[in-house]
Amino acid sequence: MSDVIVAPETRDLAxxxxxxxHWLGGCLPRATGIAVTDLAYPRGAGQSHETVLFDAHxxxxxxxxxxxxxxxxxxxxxTVFPDNLFDEQHAIMKLLSDEGLVRVARPLWFEEDPSIxxxxxxxxxxxxxRVPVSxxxxxxxxxxxxxxxxxxxxxxxSAVEQLAAIQRVPxxxxxFLGGKGAAARGVxxxxxxxxxxxxxxxxxxxxxxxRDALARLESAWPAHDPEGIVWGxxxxxxxxxxxxxxxxxxxxxxxxxxxxxxxxxxxxCTLSETMHGRNSTYGAYxxxxxxxxxxxxxxxxxxxxxxxxxxxxxxxxxxxMTCTGVRLSQLRGTAGMDEAAMRRRLKVA
Length: 349
Hints:
By secondary structure, the chain is α+β, with helices and mostly antiparallel strands. 39% of the residues lie in helices and 14% in strands. The chain is built from ten helices and seven strands. A five-stranded antiparallel beta sheet has the order 1-2-3-5-4, sandwiched between helices.
């Protein structure tokens, strides 16, 4: 099975090229002969935002220029999350690019005017590499499935190094990610987000299982809440790798926060087990990928932070993923997970 386009919506790419060419004229006032070519949607990833790859060509100062680009457009109708963090997504990527601790695509331009492409958008540099896609699951087929164990080991180590590097970025430099009041940062910020997410889902249908899960999680509130930036979708499927199996870009920063250091580690460990661990449900076990214990140890070593109490954050991860799954089912008009399965997953009677 080949990779498929999973974008929430698509458009006429020839028309898009013309719009981008006209718009780039304002971004590059000294450029002539601007041309946008090779437009394409990513395959096997990118379900929440319309994302299009392209190359921009122009002449400036008598010299030909080419820039590989990616345009990411704010969702219009297919909204997976209740919070509009499109501006923050761009801001955190710019911060990380400027800081140089985490490998991200460098943002190039941001456009607030919705009349150009139908909604605000930003353009970032296009990185070259390979992504372990979710559709079809990378544990079943594809370049990572076909790689040797020692090559997979490089993928795992490089991924965890980047995951931990996020926690070396000073929280003070990302104040624009803070919430309000008592939920300004730390676990309280992520907790507030997912309480509101549950209420948002309940506008369509009651969610008794999610309510019971929230009560269970609150009754076991974690004592350990180290500060830190939250990426929001921490998995190797949101990383791009070069031919040497090293990370060249950490992608999809659509739900960032100052919620604390352990959320991303918990998400990464949970998705690793699901997608390629010994008890994988979506893919198959991939020899060479680090175990949960190895991931935690390497993350602690590089980040300089303790992962004590990670189990609660992993349970919270399951809750977050269930909220997202319910929302996707609502958007697609499908039945989704049955109540008994949800209760087992969320450990509620």
